[in-house]
Design goal:
The complex is a heterodimer of chains A (about 575) and B (about 70). In chain A, a hairpin with a 4-residue loop joins strand 1 and strand 2. In chain A, helix 10 packs parallel to helix 12 and helix 13 packs across helix 14. Chain A has 22 helices and 17 strands. In chain A, strands 2-1-6-3-4-5 form a 6-stranded mixed β-sheet. Chain A has a 6-stranded mixed β-sheet with strand order 8-7-12-9-10-11, sandwiched between helices. Chain A has about 575 residues and is α+β, with helices and mostly antiparallel strands. Chain A folds into 3 domains: about 200 residues, Aldehyde ferredoxin oxidoreductase, N-terminal domain (Aldehyde Ferredoxin Oxidoreductase,  A, domain 1); about 180 residues, Aldehyde Ferredoxin Oxidoreductase Protein, subunit A, domain 3 (Orthogonal Bundle); about 180 residues, Aldehyde Ferredoxin Oxidoreductase Protein, subunit A, domain 2. Chain B has a single domain, classed as Beta-grasp domain (Ubiquitin-like (UB roll), Roll), CATH 3.10.20.30. Helix content of chain B is about 10%, strand content about 35%. In chain B, strands 2-1-5-3-4 form a 5-stranded mixed β-sheet, with no helix packed on it. The N and C termini of chain B lie far apart (about 35 Å). Classes of the chains: A alpha+beta (about 575), B mainly beta (about 70). The interface between A and B is medium-sized, with 42 and 20 residues.
């Protein structure tokens, strides 16, 4: 029987509760956003006792369904001031599902703010303990120590030093199948865990009953079809496994939508030196792994292991957004410097998008020279990692640094740094940045698929026509997919191969013995967005928060495109 | 006429990264794709002067053409 684990940090109690009927059909993002909306006062301080942390595996997590191992984390974000869902791979979602944990809710705040705690979850229940040894340690050291204490197979959710310091760039890190790190990345969610004084959660699923499938035969048949669509689609079956997400550097550069020098240009002269093609060849040459999955059961394997010039591990999960932000947007030409920075951010527990976009603004401000890769590495280690006054400013993220230094070209929406696609030359993604309940977030409605990549049809990226509808449809679909535990990259086959989505729905139906239709799934997506939107409005946001910064009125080469949507046109997004 | 052709991802295998090539007037993008030995269904993205274009599009002297297989990321 599925259960809710509720941990109260004020009285250090742990309770096991029955799943309320209204939550039974929900998972992943639908569940985390429902719990946050129901239990967190929208106007509360995100780092105060009224905020909560909610972890929930997806509806299909823990089953044999391919790519279903994503865990959602929900809270009120200290960065955006609104609701947040950040999902990650790793091993914890499948472990939770197999142990029958529908959600883990962590609430309250210890009265004694000098003490730190850990939470151990096993099949016998959950236990809070005081932690002293690992406080101040980086994520890799935490994972290593816990594997030594509890065994190699242990699942770990950990808070790095940035989260301990409650920085707005901090994330929550999750151990992946190889003992490296995946992240609940955005929104400064690590700061919330830091405010609860929780250093890590260990998960031991030994003896877990496993997930019960209502109709195993039907599930198996649907799962087979679903997996085939993932392997058959050229993007999920070939492109992503070979080149990873970083293949986008050259595509966006050619299309004139690769933000360069803190969003001043749309193309980067040295794009080839940071491209996916270059990275692939270097990984192979140095004996790294071009293919790597972030969770067991991933067929797409878009991740990779990147070695240094001596063939030693330098980083993994080295994504386009990080490479873009430190490469084109901060003009760093040496991929090894970017990889080293990526690894330090993993260890400190920092959002590699927010932190890297911040460096573009810091360079604009003259904190360090443009393209200074060694400078970035030094600032991460010596200032941010040690929590010096400068480190605290930088650790506050993109907007924080812009405000401190009086910079006007600050790429944020709802206080969150804008990722790797210029909204002037890829207009659909601008609508997503503006309207997403998450703040500027490309994954919440990835119009790049249709605007640039020719997946799911074509909508001209340089024209306004069709962008609001495109973003709305994708945001609704994404909210539903984020509730299943599926990786968002299943959207590529789902947009192009007719059998993909019905097979996904058949798996959910077979898992629970229910009869959802395609329309029900769309309704679920709409429900999630509306629930999140209401939370944000109740937290004090208005439609005027759904706007891009005014510097996007300036033309960006090579198309000399400008952001030219009126407020009224953007607000039409919410007409559903 | 002279056309600058840029290839990406596995289109580079056994071909080139970037080349200026001579073509007769009236050449369209599909002709170039054929001459490069790329099957039409392998084509994911065609960018001409950084804008999306169709295979039937006729080229002019000095054109910049970029060809990608179906790719994605994010």
């Amino acid at each position: 029987m599925d259960k809710i684990l509720r941990v109260n940090m004020s009285d250090l109690s742990v309770k096991t509760e029955e799943v309320p009927a209204a939550w039974a059909g929900l998972g992943g993002r639908a569940l985390t956003s429902t719990v946050v909306a129901a239990e967190v006062p929208p106007t509360c301080h995100p780092l105060g006792p009224y905020n909560k942390m909610v972890f929930a595996p997806g509806l299909l997590s823990g089953t044999a369904a391919s790519n279903s191992g994503r865990m959602s984390f929900g809270t009120k974000s200290p960065l955006t001031g609104g609701i947040k869902e950040a999902n990650a791979g790793g091993t914890s979602a499948q472990a939770f599902a197999k142990m029958g944990i529908k959600a883990l809710i962590i609430e309250g705040m210890p009265k004694d703010q000098d003490k730190w705690y850990s939470l151990a979850i096993t099949c016998d229940g959950a236990t809070l303990s005081e932690e002293t040894e690992l406080i101040g340690k980086g994520n890799f050291a935490v994972i290593e120590a816990l594997q030594a204490r509890l065994g190699k197979k242990i699942g770990v959710i950990t808070l790095g030093p940035a989260g301990e310091m409650k920085m707005l760039t901090s994330n929550i890190s999750v151990k992946d199948p190889e003992g490296k790190i995946r992240s609940h990345g955005r929104g400064g969610v690590g700061a919330v865990m830091g405010s609860k004084k929780l250093k890590y959660i260990s998960i031991d699923d030994k003896g877990a009953p496993g997930v019960q499938i209502a109709d195993p035969e039907k599930f198996k048949a649907a799962s087979k079809i679903f997996s085939k669509t993932l392997l058959d689609h050229p993007v999920s079956g070939q492109g992503l496994p070979t080149y990873g997400t970083n293949v986008l550097v050259n595509i966006l550069n050619e299309a004139g939508g690769l933000p360069t020098r803190n969003f001043t240009y749309g193309q980067y002269e040295f794009h080839d030196k940071i491209s996916g093609e270059f990275m692939h060849d270097r990984i192979v040459e140095r004996g790294g792994k071009p293919k790597h999955g972030c969770h067991a059961g991933c067929l797409i394997q878009c991740s990779q292991v990147y070695n240094d010039k001596d063939g030693k591990y330098l980083t993994s999960g080295f994504e386009y957004e990080t490479v873009w932000a430190l490469g084109a947007n901060a003009l760093i030409q040496e991929l090894d410097d970017i990889a080293e920075a990526d690894n330090i951010m993993d260890d400190l527990g920092m959002d590699s998008i927010e932190t890297s976009v911040m460096f573009g603004v810091a360079m604009e401000a003259g904190v360090l020279p443009w393209g200074d890769g060694r400078g970035v590495v030094r600032l991460l280690r010596e200032e941010i990692g040690k929590g010096t006054p400068l480190g605290r400013i930088l650790g506050g993220g993109t907007e924080h640094v812009g405000t401190t230094y009086g910079i006007t070209q600050v790429p944020v929406v709802k206080h969150q740094g804008i990722p790797a696609y210029d909204p002037r030359s890829v207009k659909g993604i601008g609508i997503t940045y503006a309207t997403s309940t998450m703040g500027a977030d490309h994954t919440s409605g990835y119009t790049i698929a249709t605007n640039i990549l020719g997946v799911g049809g074509r909508v001209d990226p340089l024209k306004k026509d069709g962008q609001v509808d495109l973003s709305r449809n994708l945001q609704i679909a994404t909210a539903a997919v984020d509730s299943t535990g599926m990786c968002i990259f299943i959207a590529f086959p789902a947009l192009d191969i007719p059998e993909c989505l019905p097979a996904l729905i058949d798996m959910i139906n077979a898992r629970f013995g229910i009869a959802l239709t395609g329309d029900d799934v769309v309704s679920l997506g709409k429900y999630v967005l509306k629930t999140e939107h209401k939370f944000n409005l109740d937290a004090g946001m208005t439609n005027l928060d759904d706007r891009l910064p005014e510097f996007f009125e300036k033309p960006v080469p090579p198309h000399n495109a400008v952001w030219d949507f009126s407020g009224e046109e953007i607000d039409a997004f919410w007409n559903f | 006429m002279r056309i600058k052709i840029k290839l990406f991802a596995n289109f580079r295998d056994g071909r080139f990264v970037v080349e200026d090539q001579e073509y007769p007037p009236g050449t369209c993008i599909a002709d170039i794709i054929k001459k490069l030995g790329i099957e039409p269904e392998e084509i994911g993205i065609i960018l001409l002067e950084s804008k999306h274009a169709d295979p039937e599009q006729e080229l002019t002297d000095g054109a910049n053409l970029a060809l990608f297989p179906l790719l994605g990321g994010g």
